[in-house]
Amino acid sequence: MRGITRRTALTIAAGTVTASTLSDAATAAADAPAPRRPAASGAGPALRTALVTRVTPRNNWRVTAVAIHYANPIALCGGVIPPSAFQVTADLGGQSAARTVSRVYPNTAARTNALPNAERPGRYLIIELDPDDANAQASGTDPLPLHRAYAIRQVADVRTPGGDLVLAAGPLAIRNDDVITPVVDDFTAGSFTDSTGFELAFRLYQPQGFVRSPGAATRYPLVVTLHGGGEVADNNMTQLTANRIAVTFAKPARQRRHPAFVLAPQIPLPRPMDGPDGTDWTDPKVRAALVELIDTFTTRRPVDADRIYLVGLSSGARGIFNLLPRHPHTFAAALATAGWGDPSTMGRITHIPIWADHSIDDPVVPYREGRFGKPGTWTLMNALESAGAQITRGEWANDLPKAKFEARSRALLNRARRAESHVLFTSYTPGTTPVSPHFAWAQTYENDVVIDWLFDQSRRP
């Protein structure tokens, strides 16, 4: 008896087989009864499988879909694939648990589609997963090992309304080879060693206009993002994926409106902790390296030196209130969420446009008292006002729908403009900040009114 070739065996193990392969196998095994074989799949064999992940405003980094690349287009001819046709299991940290499949459809690229069109064939099968699954996370303190962590098995045939087989079910599971994170994947990774030998890792987004024409005369704004204390690490990733502080400035819609460089440094482990209040961006080594990194980057890229912006959350906002008084003529404006600082230094920054926000019931960085003996945002704004800056204040719920949230922000900005005020302070009503009262920033960087205001600021008169 002649056996099946190794190539045929591997093809069958991939989960799908072609008609020609089946014909070859039948010829090779002509002297023996052939085992039952699956019918040919119209889409051909699966070539590669990727997880599609997303950085969310409140739930951090999540695995939201699986994209399977097939050799041929998946043509449903008006049919719909039921979610029950596929089973997806995540194997993470020694635990294996099912994910909830919510939608399945073809697409022309390895990405989700808010409005999938079943009539449009594509070589990618998108299996959307419920982002609220308990095991949907893509990272803890560090990124989770996601490569080949997901197993996908088709448990029911997929057919057209006319009964033609499109994708055949089978007992074999496939695993993901790749991990795709839109926008995050557009950041390059690097590190900077300052003149003292201290090293900061960073991620950098470069605007498409610069990428296409690096020698052009166009100069771009620079957004420097300062992460919170939870992202101090050596992975050069979680400063992007733990929250959307940097990612939201690089997403395509935002870049079309405000093309800019986005620089996201990460404080390394072990925490330097040389600062007087035990925080991170205030540590002298970190602060000096950050300033040198910004200066170096500004001279080596076409940065508009009059439009350098600081944005930060939690200890990143603490870093803003520590850095601005030391460099009061470097930054055009700042966004500071849930921060704290030294009221005695506020007189040095009365001229700098700032939009600060903080939840009144924040238990991690108290709204008035702050941390480590340094007062919170409410007290800093009062000190800034006493030093001569006019503060425009507003209070509303942090969990308002986006449209209503932006309408309140717009009204506050209009009041500030009428009063010729360039410092705005938003307080969030107790009990209205989802997940944790400390996470006030979820709305901040999705707020187009605030971001438009930021990019309107310049050191030029």
Description:
With 461 residues, the protein is an alpha/beta fold. The chain has 2 domains: 46-180, Immunoglobulin-like, CATH 2.60.40; 184-456, Rossmann fold (3-Layer(aba) Sandwich), CATH 3.40.50. It has helices at residues 6-13, 19-28, 208-212, 238-241, 247-250, 252-257, 284-300, 315-326, 377-386, 402-418, 441-444, 448-456; strands spanning 46-56, 60-74, 86-92, 95-99, 101-107, 122-129, 150-154, 158-159, 165-167, 174-175, 178-180, 188-193, 199-205, 220-226, 261-266, 303-313, 333-337, 354-359, 391-396, 423-428. It has a 9-stranded mixed beta sheet, sandwiched between helices. Strands 5-6-2-1-11 form a 5-stranded mixed beta sheet, with no helix packed on it. A 4-stranded antiparallel beta sheet has the order 4-3-7-10, with no helix packed on it. A hairpin with a 3-residue loop joins strand 1 (46-56) and strand 2 (60-74). The chain is elongated, with a radius of gyration of 27 Å. Residues 1-41 have low confidence and may be disordered. Residues 50-165 form the Esterase Ig-like N-terminal domain. It holds the Pfam family EstA_Ig_like. Keywords: Signal.
